[in-house]
Amino acid sequence: IGAGIVGAALAQALRKNSISFEIFERDPHVDARGQGWGMTLHWALPTLYSILPPHQHPLILAAQVDISCSGNEEVEMLTLDASTAKTNHIIMPTKRVRVKRERLRKAMLHDLPVQWNKRLLSITTTDEGVTVAFEDGTTATGTLVVGADGSASQTRRILAPETHALKPLPIHAIGAEVNYTPEQMAPMLKLDPLLFQAIHPETNDFLWWSILDTPQTSGNGCYLVQVSISYDLRKPGNNEVPASNAERIADMKKRAVHFASPLREAVLAIPDDNVASDVRLADWDLVSWPNNKGRATLVGDAAHAMTMYRGDAANHGIMDAANLAATLKRVTEGEISLEDAVMAYEEEVRGRCRPAVWASRQACLDAHNWERLGEDSPLIERRMDARFVWEDDHMNGRMTRQNGL
To answer: What angle do CA 156, 162, 166 make, to 5 degrees?
Structure first.
């Protein structure tokens, strides 16, 4: 259920393992709604390549925000002091591919038989199988239903009606896709050619800057950039959430006045009528749900919704897809029962992803508290699928490294 990136990854992994599947997606077609901004593939990149047929590997590189990148670079990531525009921390270099989400989704859906306009209504399981019903009156029956339908998963809502709800965090973000001319971009490209993050030490406002397209592929001679500013709602003066698009843009500019050049000018250059989205951050750290004796399970954000401040969500989702397909392969070969396979898959997901949700939550909170920034902060640690132990309550606690993979 769900033809996003993780749903497509699961389908590709199942096909590679000669396991039959059907894909159902609520949208009427692939371009029905926006698929988010950019995303970074890093520690799960080898896994992604392993589940895709070799002829599709070039499609991943073609989905990059800057197609001039080779995809083999080991790149560091900068955290800037927004009051000076100087580097404060450097995240150690890792191999990464920065892609535009909608491009990657289309690449991964290549040749997959998606059934569109299928909104999930109910799930009925028996000892013999599982039947899903859709709002259009149709049904489908199979051996296992897998919810890959995102952080607001309808599958999770049905399986866990009492515990499905996301846990809101006290952070609010405003983001926009903005066109910049090469002249406007020149000083920003000197900071980093792809992306960076910046935090103001006094206001604790957080800026995320990430290229989504370049003049080489944008079609209009401009750069397309994701610009996002987020802030802690608990701090004085931050308790009001802008209600209109114009107010959201104005709020971004008001906060950017305190930034140093060229960060300030880049935000102030956003057109007043530019579309801006607002997001109240939330996650889901339970990572547990009834699987109805191995007839239903979850992958990706449906299983472990996390904030974007570590860029880990898609990487964990891809790992979910590969691991679930490999475990189901053992079922088809008679090595293990379906129920035991699903239980084993979910146990691994909980062990890997519950700490990841906590780490991303802490990174989100640290991004809005200058005093907490340090080499032990999940916000600026190298992305290596590190495991963490939660030591205190979820809003004020800290994390310490348990082990690293």
So the answer is: 60
Which DSSP letter does residue 370 get? G
Identify the H or E element spanning 41: strand 38-41
Q: Rounded to the nearest 5 degrees, what angle is found at the Cα of 156, between the Cα atoms of 311 and 22?
A: 90
β-strand partners of 195: 210
User: What does the DSSP assignment read for 43-60?
Assistant: TTHHHHHHHS-GGGHHHH
Strands (E), 96-203: 97-100, 114-115, 120-125, 130-134, 139-142, 145-147, 167-180, 195-199
Q: Using CA atoms, how far apart are residues 363 and 174, in angstroms rounded to an integer?
A: 18
Q: The whole model's pTM is what? A: 0.92
Which DSSP string corresponds to 290-337? --TTTTEEE-THHHH---SSSS-HHHHHHHHHHHHHHHHHHHHTTSS-
Identify residue 60 by its one-letter amino acid code. I
pLDDT at 393: 40
Q: Which two tokens stand for residue 6?
A: 């993780």
Identify the DSSP state of 64. Answer: B
Location of structure tokens 């084993």: 344
pLDDT of residue 36: 66
